[in-house]
Each structure stands twice: as C-alpha cells, then as structure tokens.
Amino acid sequence: MTSERRSAAWFSATGRAGMIYRSWMRNQGFGAEVFDGRPVIGIATSASELAPCNAHLHRVAEAVKRGVWQAGGFPLEFPTMATGETLMRPTAMLYRNLMAMEVEELIRANPLDGVVLLSGCDKTTPAMLMAAASVDVPAVMVTGGPMLNGKYKDMDVGSGTHVWKFEEELKAGRMTQEECFFAEGCMARSNGHCMTMGTASTMACMAEALGMQLPGSATWPAVDARRFETAQAAGQRVVSLVEEELRPSKILTRQAFENAIRVNAAIGGSTNAIIHLLAIAGRVGVELGLHDFDALARDVPTLLDLMPSGRFLMEDFCYAGGLPVVMRQLVEADLLHAGPITVTGKSVADNVTDAECWNAEVITPVAEPFQPAGTGTAVLTGNLCPGGAVLKQSAASPELLTHKGKALVFDSAEEYHAVCDDPELPVDASTVLVIRGAGPKGYPGMPEVSNVPLPAKMLKAGVTDMVRICDGRMSGTGYGTVVLHVTPESAVGGPLAFVRTGDEITLDVPNRSLTLHVDDEELNRRREAWAPPGSPYTSGYTWLYTHHVLQADEGADFDFLQGSRGHAVPRDSH
Ligand code: FES
Questions:
Q1: How far apart are alpha carbons 134 and 249 in whole angstroms?
Q2: Which residue from 50, 95, 194 has its CB within 8 A of the most atoms of ligand 1, so it is best to mutate?
Q3: Cβ–ligand 1 contact at 51 (below 6 Å)
Q4: What was the pLDDT predicted at 1?
Q5: What is the pTM for the complete model shown?
Q6: Which residue among 95, 473, 550, 574 is least enclosed by CB atoms within 10 Å?
Q7: What does the pLDDT look like over 17-36, one tens digit per residue?
Q8: Tens of pLDDT along 477-534?
Q9: Is 395 exposed, middle or buried (0-12, 13-18, 19+ CB in 10 A)?
Q10: For ligand 1, atom 3: residue with the closest CA
C-alpha cells in the first residue's frame, strides 16, 4: 500500500532526489519520522484578507492539521488563490476556472496522497470541487462556515439580501444615508461567508449533499467552536479515505448530483448552484443537463424558511439541526437516493438517520413545507433562450410569473444604471427590462448583475418588482422576478442580441417558456444585420477566458478543463 502512495515517489526515494525532497522539508523542523510512509495530506487553504469570507481559514487549517496528526498522517498546508466575491472586478466568476486549474495542478504536482479543501466565499467551493474531481485524489471539503446573523436595530439582517433592501429603502426615501452607513457594520459582524441562503451557503450545502463534506458541517457558523471540531474530524477522516482509496470519482456519481439538485430545491438554494454543479459534473464525466434541474426539482418542496426567500438565516438553520435534517426528511419522502457513498464511508441515508429537527419553523416538514413542490427554480425555453434560461420562483413575485410586456433594452448593466434614476425613463410596471452583454464571453465572466435595481420612479410609485431578463447571473442573496443565464448569450449571437425596445415578450413560468413575439423572418433579418461585439482582450488570462469559456448551460467551465486528468505522479524534476 505504502509504495502505491503518490508521496512515496518523493519521500521514499533513495539517492540524490530523495535527499532533496526530504532535506528541504526538514528546514521547517519536521523530524525524519514524517517520511516513514504515512499518508501526506495537503490542506488547500483559500485564506486571504482580500476574500473576507475566507479570512479565518488559517484557523480552520490548524484544526484540520490536528486531526491529520491524530490519525497518523502528515499534514502540509498550502495556499491557493481566493476568489472573493465582494472586491474582485469585473467579477469573481471570471476567476473560478483559474482557481480550479491552479488547485488541480498544485495537488498533482506535489507529493500529496489526499487533500482537505478549505473554502468559503461563493466561487471557492465549486473551484475546489472541480479541481478535486479532475485530479481525483481522496478529498474532503471543509467550508469555512457562515457569519453570525446580522443584527440591525431590532431585526435580523442578511448579508447581500439586505444590501438590496437597504438600497431600495434609500432610493424610496424611507432610509437615510447615515442609517445605511450604520447598517454596514451590523450586517457583517463575524468571520464567515454570507449567512443568507446565498451562493456560498448553497455551495457548502451542495458539497455536503454530494457527499464531499462531513454531515452537518455546512452550517456551523465560522466562529462556532464546532466549526473547528468538524475541521479536526475532517483531518482525521481524510487519512482513512487515503487508506480506503475512496476518491471523488467514487462519490461524485450521477445519483450524487441528482441528490444535490433535489437538496438545492429543498433549501431554496442559489441559481448559481446550477452552473457550478454542471461544471463539477463535467469534470467527472457525469451527464447532466439544465433539464435535469427542472425535472428533478419539480416534486421537491422548499423546506427552509431562509432569506432571500424567507425569514431566517444560516445560524438559525444550524441550530434547527442543519442540512442532515433536510436530507433525512427527503430520504424518508423518497426524494433522495439513499445509497450513494460519501466521505464518511457510509451512505447518504446512514449519515442522516439520527438527525433531529429542533425548530420546525426554520426547517419545515415535507408535509407542511415553507413552499410547495413545483415552486423552485424553473428552467425556461423558447425562442428567446434556445439553450435555456432559469428563474428562481421562490425569489420572484407570484403575480409576475405569467407576464406579457414591452421590452426596454440595454446593451449593458452600466447603460441601465446610468439612466435608471431618470424620472423620464419610459417605463411602467409592465415593462420588461432586458439587460444583455452579461454572459460568460460578453462581460466577460458572467457577473451577478441581472437583478438590476428597479427604476427609482417605479420604487417611488410603490412598485416592488418588475420582470428582468439577462444573460448574466444573480447573486444567491438576490431576489426578484429575474430571468437569468439566457443561453446562448447575446455576445455569441443568441436571440437576446436581437431584441429591440418595444418588442413584446411573454414570460410563462408555469409552462416554462420565454417568448419573444417577433417572427422568424424578422429575427433572421436582425441576425444578418448583427455584428458580434469586438473584444478588447488580445492577450493574458481574459483572452484565454473569452476563447475557451463554455456557455452557462454547460457550466461556464473552460472547454479544455472538462474531464478528469487523474493523479498520476509527474516526471521527476531532478
Ligand atoms: Fe463571500 Fe457572500 S460575499 S459569501
């Protein structure tokens, strides 16, 4: 067994090369005994002060290390890039694939037998899962945990969700700028990622639902002592995973993805999970399409009453029992595959069989759910989105789910922002705001700009929602009747590129359709007169990105990164 470990190619080597590998490591104070053939465990840490959601991961890494030592492994922490959602421009999503590529190559290039992946902010979790899937060494995910509930005046406020709400209050004149400044410090009051059911919390739950994270660990707040206990347990467990050769390829099966899709529906998770799960599936060769998300989610009720769709936050979800309660309920209702193996070495059902619900207001029962089945994220098709589009019903206004209106078209989010407060803007409550140029290639990076704020004039008139259509994404913390991920995007000549102000559009969510009322002949005329927008990127990473990124319905991964490249030990360097 020992000789089959990857690390043996380095640390068990004799002669000059072996001496180089061991000797330089010993400058950190490691004794000779760590090279005795024990599993070498990498701890991939995306800690960074530029990614505040991940800033505490060094502490989490210390707990993982403790566990690895306890179980007889040799832990080695290494930094990875961190894609922080709040600061990175033009969008952290532009760098998800770069991070995935970096983590994959770091694991393969080094003497690692197993890895623990530390993530937090939105893109860092999928990037690490994509990497682990492609290199396929035994891996356990440990997400960094959500922030404590935000507390502003007498209410709980959710990161992200209340940024939009406060902006609306400010624009409508119901809140002052001073109150907004004060609220900033109340919203983010501890280490951790967003504590709404935004993309970070969703992806933490997806890692757990896929079987790549220990049961219950998605929800412990970042500053809760049990977050560190969980991390320590992950460190212990990964050593056994190496012994058992339980690799991501054995865990990330089609059934595991089907479970994740259903869990996403039950938690009212982010639409971004669709793109990330498609990308991860692409790395392990699991056939997954947009239609799977609609078909599998249709009979799953939303159980969690969490922001942005509901009232509570991740801390409440944790104290109510966390994701194992949701998964147990779904297993009992025959809505999950019970059998897939997980990083615990046990099945999904075995992991959650004892999970108890401590607060049925937060985690509602399947029989009396927060929202009934069929109200989750819908996948739309039609002549405006031949490759599909998505809409999060639970974050939308029910009365707008069937809507016909005239388009007001903008070629970019910036173009809209420049005029949205203009009292003369030609809009009424029925207008459909069309924002294009926000797709993977066009922006580039497919940013979260789709839920543009409503025009100030409509907010002042008391309008709280309008239909918006965009080829970009929406933050998992966002809300509104927003058609997202329109595919193909406008920059590659999708029909969205040919919509003109005044065209009529029908959104029919119950029938899963999005229709542009322009006949084919006219659409073809517009297509022939259309020229793709030029790209200013002639070199560098963004050039690579624009030339190789796939469309949203394929996970927006790079075409050349799909599939697994395995964990074979590379050639010697000495
Ligand atoms: Fe990092 Fe929300 S900004 S998780």
A1: 9
A2: 194
A3: no
A4: 42
A5: 0.96
A6: 574
A7: 899 999 999 999 999 999 99
A8: 888 999 999 999 999 999 999 999 999 999 999 999 999 999 999 999 999 999 999 8
A9: buried
A10: 85
CATH T-level topology, domain 396-529: Glucose Oxidase; domain 1 (3.50.30)
Tokens of 30: 């490691």
Q: What would the CATH number be for the domain defined by 38-148+190-353?
A: 3.40.50.2300
Mutation test of ligand 1: which of 148, 187, 193, 473 has the most ligand atoms closer than 8 Å to its C-beta?
Answer: 193
Three-state DSSP string of 395-441: HCCHHHCEEEEEEEEECCHHHHHHHCCCCCCCCCCCCEEEECCCCCC
ipTM: 0.99
In angstroms, the Cα distances linking 395 to 129, 448, 532 are: 27, 15, 33
85 CA: nearest ligand 1 atom: 3
Residues of the chain with CATH 3.50.30.80: 396-529
Answer for the pair 553, 488: CB distance below 8 angstroms, yes or no. Answer: no
In short, whether 53's Cβ falls inside 6 Å of ligand 1 is: yes
What are the residue ranges of CATH 3.40.50.2300 in the chain?
38-148+190-353
Question: Reduced to 3 states, what is the DSSP secondary structure of residue 207?
Answer: helix
